[in-house]
Design brief:
The chain is of the alpha+beta class. Helices cover 34% and strands 26% of the residues.
């Protein structure tokens, strides 16, 4: 009788698990949420300041475990670039430069998150010109797999922007100065 009770108990547990999985799948199938963290094309931006900050954030956000170098981020954003940056995004350089920590970040599953903001002295404006020079502060933080973060040095860059119909694209940027990291 104990053997029969054990078999019956196991059968009840198995049926309960199947019922739970079926309920979970039906709830999920009815959900309209379709979130993703993949890179998506951003809509055109109507001012060079916002476009420059968006582009610099993307160029300085990396996933070393999935990318060979920062060039992959540039290549992924090629549709937001023009001129010298678009040319650089076309083919991987040889040698392919990467920060010295790249291999460590890749092994650890770390991500480098870039954020950029237009310097305080530049308010969004558009004077009708098809070119603009925008100064941006770029900050990067390493997001470790365990949730901890490590800030990297910030930098101030000057971005040369060109309007291509309604979309502003980055043509070139250069570092104006490095800023010590702040915890």
């Amino acid at each position: 009788m104990t053997r029969r009770a054990s078999v019956f108990g196991a059968l009840v547990v198995a049926l309960a698990l199947v019922a739970l999985v079926a309920v979970a799948l039906s709830i999920r199938a009815g959900s309209s949420e379709t979130g993703t963290d993949s890179h998506v094309h951003l809509d055109p931006v109507d001012n060079p300041q916002t476009a420059a900050a968006d582009i610099m954030s993307g160029l300085h956000s990396w996933t070393p475990a999935e990318q060979a170098s920062p060039w992959d981020a540039m290549h992924a954003m090629a549709d937001r670039l023009t001129g010298r940056l678009a040319d650089a995004a076309e083919s991987r350089p040889n040698p392919d430069p990467a920060p010295r920590q790249w291999a460590t970040w890749a092994r650890s599953g770390d991500r480098v998150i870039g954020s950029a903001a237009v310097t305080d002295d530049q308010l969004p404006s558009h004077d009708g010109s098809a070119t603009a020079e925008v100064t941006v502060t770029i900050k990067q933080v390493v997001l470790h797999a365990d949730g901890a973060t490590t800030p990297r040095e910030s930098m101030i860059v000057r971005v040369e922007m060109v309007q291509d119909e309604h979309d502003w694209k980055a043509e070139y940027f250069h570092v104006v100065r490095m800023v010590e990291r702040t915890p």
